[in-house]
Design brief:
- This protein is α/β, with parallel strands linked by helices.
- The protein has a domain of 69 residues.
- α2 links the parallel β1 and β2.
- The model has no long low-confidence stretch (mean pLDDT 90).
Length: 104
C-alpha cells in the first residue's frame, strides 16, 4: 500500500515474549490461564482462529479457547462479557492509508 511505514508497528519477536512470560512466572507458558478469544461466525475467520491458536500454543505454550458467534451476538458478547481478545476486520476501500485515517 502506498505510504506504508514498515517500522511503525511492534516487531515480531517470539523470543522477547517467551522471556517476558518466563519473567512473569510462566516459563514455556506453563500455568498461564487460557486466553478467551471471540470471533465472528464467518468462514474467513475459521482458519484464522485455528492458525492463531496453533501458533500461540506452539510458540508461547499459551492455550486459547475460541468461540465464534454471528454478527449481532458477537457485539452483545463483547459489550456484556468482554473476552481477552476479539477479532473483527476492516478492509480499505482504496489503496491509501488515508482510507483508515479519515473515517467519517
Amino acid at each position: 500500500m502506498p505510504g506504508h511505514s514498515p517500522g511503525i508497528g511492534l516487531p515480531y519477536d517470539p523470543e522477547a515474549v517467551r522471556y517476558l512470560l518466563a519473567e512473569a512466572g510462566y516459563p514455556g507458558g506453563r500455568g498461564f490461564p487460557a486466553i478467551d478469544c471471540l470471533a465472528r461466525d464467518d468462514p474467513g475467520f475459521d482458519l484464522l482462529c485455528e492458525h492463531l491458536g496453533a501458533q500461540w500454543l506452539d510458540i508461547l505454550g499459551a492455550e486459547t479457547t475460541w468461540k465464534q458467534l454471528e454478527w449481532g451476538r458477537f457485539f452483545d458478547r463483547v459489550s456484556e462479557e468482554t473476552p481477552h481478545l476479539w477479532l473483527v476486520s476492516w478492509m480499505a476501500d482504496y489503496p491509501d492509508p488515508d482510507n483508515f485515517l479519515r473515517v467519517q
